[in-house]
Amino acid sequence: MRERGYDIDSPRGGGKSKLADDAGVHRAAVSRLIQRQSMPDLETMRRLAAVLGVPLRDMLIRSGRLSENDLPIAAGRGGETDAPRLLSPEEAARRMGVPPELQAVFVRVTKAFLPQVE
User: Fold this and answer.
1) Residue range 45-75, pLDDT digits in tens
2) Which among 19, 47, 61, 115 has the fewest CB atoms less than 10 Å away?
3) Which InterPro entries does this one have (predicted)?
4) How far apart are CA 86 and CA 82, in angstroms?
């Protein structure tokens, strides 16, 4: 956030407000994320990642919710034959601790961002 020019250390919160405005999210979500009080929902993470120029995968890993092993990069680059297994949206929801009553919504939203596989 600092590298992108957002002054998140100011007690007046100007950088946090600007980041929230730029991402189209609530300022409280940004403040809670910075203070590690809560984890934003997937849409908030997606918007913040876009504004900060960071892949969503990296945001999820940097947040500490998932590890690189949880979100392997798809193989196929450079002729790799041992492709890491990608998580299904259902498995990702379970690993991230999404409450059971919200898992169906998480899966539906996640699938909307995935490329369609034929």
Assistant:
1) 889 888 888 888 888 888 777 788 887 776 5
2) 115
3) Cro/C1-type_HTH (IPR001387), Lambda_DNA-bd_dom_sf (IPR010982)
4) 12
pTM for the structure as a whole: 0.56
The per-residue pLDDT for range 86-96, each reduced to its tens digit, is: 678 888 888 88
- Tell me, yes or no, whether 2 and 43 share the same domain: yes
Cα separation, 9 vs 106, whole angstroms:
32
The gap from C-alpha 59 to its chain's centroid, in whole angstroms, comes to 5
Q: Which two tokens stand for residue 116?
A: 């369609």
Record the tokens describing residue 118, joined without a space.
Answer: 């034929």
Paired tokens of 1: 């956030």
Could you tell me the residue range of the domain that residue 90 belongs to? 84-118
Domain count, the chain: 2
46 and 98, same domain (yes or no): no
